[in-house]
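Suppose a colleague, Dr. K., hands you the sequence of a protein chain of 318 amino acids and asks what its three-dimensional shape might be. Before reaching for any lab equipment, you can write down a predicted structure in token form. Begin with the sequence itself:
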Amino acid sequence: MSNQSTVAEFLLLGFSDVRELQILHVVVFLVIYLAALIGNLFIITAEALDHHLHTPMYFFLINLSILDLGSISVIVPKSMANSLLNTRSISYAGCIAQVFLFVFFAAANIALLTVMVYNQYVAICQPLHYETVMNRGACVQMAASVWTSGILYSALHTVNTFRLPFCQSNVINQFFCEMPQLLKLFCSHLYLSEVGILGFSACLLLSCFALIIVSYVHIFMTVLRIPSEQGWHKAFCTCLPNLTVVSLFFCTGSFAHLKPTSSSASGLDLVVAVLYSVVPPTMNPVIYSMRNKENKAALRRLTVWKLFTKNNMFVFLP
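The predicted structure, expressed as tokens, is then:
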């Protein structure tokens, strides 16, 4: 049995020990972070100010953008700061906060993506009942359930994880406090309860994924019965972005958490972690908005409004 140890801080995986490469890492992550920040803030602003976008789908998109901003803000700024300061450390309390927040945003993201697929299912497969099923009250309740379930799940996960003692080193082979890497540091005879929670998590994940697959089967079967080619095009343009986001997030996240962990740092682990933690928050605004005619129209309306107020600002001065 290994000796239990008290950990004051953890050492995260650095992208490189070469100073030039550390600066390159900061620049790349800064560009990605700013792209995610601008894209998601655009979605929130456009859909909050433009009454044309006050629909269930865009209401859920606002929630998705908030979750994306939160998830990428939890890990990317800390990684950039470590590279700038040429350090790898994160405090014990900081690691707890990072795990809680990232698990919360990730769990809520999965639940919200499932709700968004259900919204598409009702809109395409049961169009006559859409306004009744997806009314304002129902949408608010679904969003509240997403956030509440994320908080409860994350609290359970975090408390159960950090109540366990550490028997290994304090080196985490990842650029943030990732759960599979933390599990390797636990005393081998004490982490069975966390494995049980991970098994429960896997069942929930598979349930959400199965619900999404079944919904899309019904959606595509309904779409194929649409007689007009324009109807096909509109339905597929609505569904494919969500399917792309769901596939990327589920596949990379599942691979990272279900594959056997290695005892040393792996380039594959690093790439997969970036794919499921950094890429989706950056790509979601592009996938959902820039290819969406309604969002493009909203952007034009906001631009015209800004130009109008700028050109007429002196009219209202005394």
